[in-house]
């Protein structure tokens, strides 16, 4: 453990103790204090949901900052983690922690999360906006990303968007699986997350609803929390705690503060290749009723 991580760990532990003392008079909920977990599909409002869930620390003894963040792929190397690593990370979390993850719905991970030990949320976004956001993120915002150099080498936005839709099957050629870099098409990238939609224990959130119908969505987020941790605090105070925690300036997904940007940037060719690889993904996620878009 580095000095920086040691200091951060010590600070985190101290803050949790302070929070526990601050809310010492609050009764422990049945089943004990759970872990708050933000699950997100990449480029779908990860930071926004994290900020909102951290707002619960103003009304209950939850951590003031993220315990940790887990991703199925390492950002700089692109190497894929194993299901066992995901489960080990989940098992490292403790009551009153708040954590965030790009987490596949591995059977073992599902078994952990559909218990009273966790209050899980899953946020996702129109995959057409995801691929647009992905282009800007990899090309302009994250120079250490495993695909940055390749995206920067492409001649224009049009060619980069095609790669974000189609992926890079040419990368999946290393004979050693544990050294193989994957970047599948948008449908295959979403596929490992789809099973989160099947569990009522996981609150499903469309990123667009947080932008366009925030009040209703914050109420849903609060209800999901209160079903596990009943609070006597007035509801308006809880909702204000969540709302006031939002800081768009620290959320890269709020690059434009808009939704539906794909409509301005997709050409007819982009639409065709997206439909070819995505199949019924948009319908399953509730963004379209059919393929006539």
Gist of the model:
With 293 residues, the chain is an alpha/beta fold. The chain contains 14 helices and five strands.
Number of domains: 1
Helicity, in percent?
40-55%
Q: Look at the structure and give the mean pLDDT.
A: 92
CATH topology: Rossmann fold
The proportion of residues in beta strands is 5-15%
Task: Tell me, briefly, the overall form.
Answer: globular
How would you write the strand order of the largest sheet?
A: 2-3-1-4-5
Element-level helix/strand string? HEHEHEHEHHHHEHHHHHH
Tally of DSSP β-strands: 5
CATH-derived architecture:
3-Layer(aba) Sandwich
Largest sheet: 5 strands, parallel
The parts where pLDDT drops under 50 for at least 5 residues are none
Corresponding CATH superfamily: P-loop containing nucleotide triphosphate hydrolases
Distance between the termini: 51 Å
**CATH class designation:** Alpha Beta
The radius of gyration computed from the alpha-carbon positions, rounded to a whole number of angstroms, is 20 Å
């Amino acid at each position: 453990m580095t000095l920086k991580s040691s200091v951060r760990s010590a600070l985190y532990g101290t803050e949790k103790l302070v929070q526990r003392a601050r809310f010492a008079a609050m009764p422990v909920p049945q089943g004990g204090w759970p872990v708050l977990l933000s699950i997100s599909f990449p480029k779908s409002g990860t930071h926004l949901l994290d900020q909102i869930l951290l707002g619960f620390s103003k009304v209950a003894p939850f951590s003031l900052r993220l315990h940790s963040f887990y991703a199925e792929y390492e950002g700089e190397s692109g190497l894929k983690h194993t299901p066992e690593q995901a489960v080990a990370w989940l098992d490292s979390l403790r009551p009153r922690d708040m954590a965030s993850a790009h987490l596949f719905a591995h059977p073992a991970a599902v078994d952990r999360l559909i218990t009273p030990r966790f209050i899980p949320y899953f946020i996702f976004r129109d995959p057409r906006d995801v691929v647009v956001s992905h282009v800007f993120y990899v090309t302009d915002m994250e120079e250490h990303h495993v695909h940055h150099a390749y995206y920067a080498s492409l001649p224009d936005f049009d060619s980069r968007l095609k790669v974000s839709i189609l992926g890079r099957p040419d990368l999946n050629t290393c004979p050693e699986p544990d050294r193989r870099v994957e970047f599948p098409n948008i449908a295959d990238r979403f596929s490992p997350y789809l099973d989160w939609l099947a569990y009522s224990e996981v609150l499903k959130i469309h990123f667009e609803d947080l932008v366009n119908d925030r009040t209703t969505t914050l109420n849903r987020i609060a209800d999901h929390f209160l079903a596990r941790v009943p609070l006597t605090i007035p509801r308006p105070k809880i909702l204000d705690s969540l709302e006031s925690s939002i800081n768009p300036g620290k959320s890269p997904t709020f690059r434009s503060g808009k939704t539906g940007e794909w409509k301005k940037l997709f050409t007819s060719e982009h639409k065709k290749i997206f439909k070819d690889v995505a199949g019924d993904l948009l319908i399953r996620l509730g963004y379209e009723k059919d393929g006539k878009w």
